[in-house]
Every structure is written in C-alpha cells, then in structure tokens.
Amino acid sequence: MALKPLMRENSIPDLDTLIALIEIDADPKLTSLCVEAMINNETCFFRDQANFALLTGPVLDMLREHRMGTKKLRIWSAACSTGQEPYSLAMSFSENAEKWRGWNIQIFATDVSASALAQARAGRYSQFEIQRGLPVMQMLRYFEQNGEDWFAKEPLRRAVTFAEHNMLQPAPHFGKFDAILCRNMLMYLGEQKRTEVLDAIGTRIADDGLLMLGAAETVIGQTQNFKASQEFRGFYEPMSRATSQQESVHRIFG
C-alpha cells in the first residue's frame, strides 16, 4: 500500500487512525503527503489521440464560431498532472496560429499535487515522458534538451497558467470556461464525489461550452448538470444550454 511508508514515518498504527487525522485536518502537511502518495500521475502528450483530435478540430471550430464577437477563448485543463495535456493544447493552437491570429487564448491548468505542478511549470520531462505521444517534429520545435531531460521552450510555458486546486473544493474565482477537460480523474472517486466534482464543474462552464472526460468516464447517472453532446461523441454539454435554447424560442415565438 502506498501509504504504509508514510504511516511508519509518522508512527500511525493503522489506516483508520490515518483517515481520522485527515478528516479533522490535524496536520495539513500530513494530508498533503497522503495526497501525493495516492495520486496517479499517469499521462502523456495528446492522450487518446482520436478524442484529442476531435477537441482540437471540430470542437474548437464550433467554439471559434460562437466566440467570433469577442475573439476570446478560455480552456480549463483540470487534474492536469505534470502538464502534458495543457501543453498539448498550447501546441495545437500554435500549429494553427493563422486561424487564431488576434485571439486571446487562455489555457488554465490545475492539479492537487504540488510536485506534479512544479514539474508542469518547469516543463521538464524525461526522455521516456517526452517520447510518449509527442511527434519528433513537435518535440524539437517546442522543447530543448538539457542533460538527460527535455524542457519546454519559454513561449510554450507562457501559453499555460498553472494553479494548485483540489477538484473536491469550490473554484469560485476561476470564472467561466468555454471548454473544460477533466479526464481520467473521476474513475478514482466514489459515486458521491464524482457528483460533487461534476456539479462544481457545472458552475464554471459557459452555457454553450463543452466538457471532455476520459474515454471510460461518463456523466450518465452522475449529475443532472450535464448531458451527452449529440454533435460531438465523448463530449458533454451543460443542461443550461437546453434551458437557454428553450428561453430563446419562447422569446421569439411567444
């Protein structure tokens, strides 16, 4: 068990005692260490390539059409781990720079793990990590090697804003997002916690925005705030979209 070394170091006799200490937040540092020990930071660049291509192609094209008036787009990569997902997004925008010229693109990325975020902010990846999902041409264009590691070049790092955030807590100061990615995190939570996370996400997404989950995840039976998108398979839209559309029809036809 991942927590056993931590329990030994802190003279905690059993798991029940550890859970009790975490519940009352007796030692915030201990709680943080437990989170770090339990988190699975498994990720790679352009993960689930077919779905990612749908996101960076038709989904973003739809959002672009909807935002032509403001030319502003906000995307949240939630539970971003060591940063491969938001950096993949940033590279996709850069590869289509002409299409997005004059746009204000904001990529916001969060994770509960301080160590994962430190690596993400530095844009530092081992040879193994850099080769997972990243084509050679993009690796050479956006990263540079220093010793045994590869580092994201400054323009790529500037394209993403990282912040520490626990998805089980509210995020009232984040504002609204046009697209939210929360992939391969819900599967590790119990039913009630999944609902809490999805409901929290529901308060942060635009009425015509889209939510992207992992390939093995769904909102069905988890929340009343989202439904499956009929246009984009594997994506979910807020129920508030249907309400807004109904109100528009009512205003037009009375």
Give an overview in words.
By secondary structure, this protein is α/β, with parallel strands linked by helices. It is 43% helix and 20% strand. The protein has 11 helices and 10 strands. Strands 6-2-1-7-8-10-9 form a 7-stranded mixed β-sheet, with helices on both faces. A 3-stranded antiparallel β-sheet has the order 3-5-4. The longest helix is centred in the N-terminal third of the chain and has 18 residues.
The outline comes out as globular
Q: Report the order of strands and helices.
A: HHHHEHEHEHHEEHEEHEEEH
Largest sheet descriptor:
7 strands, mixed
The level of helicity is 40-55%
| Average of per-residue pLDDT values | 87
Q: Count of helical segments?
A: 11
Q: Low-confidence segments, ≥5 residues, pLDDT <50?
A: 244-253
Give the strand order, joined by hyphens, for the main sheet.
6-2-1-7-8-10-9
Strand content: 15-25%
State the separation between the terminal residues, measured CA to CA: 62 Å
Rounded to an integer, what's the Rg over CA atoms?
Answer: 20 Å
E-strand count = 10
What structural class results from the helix and strand content? alpha/beta
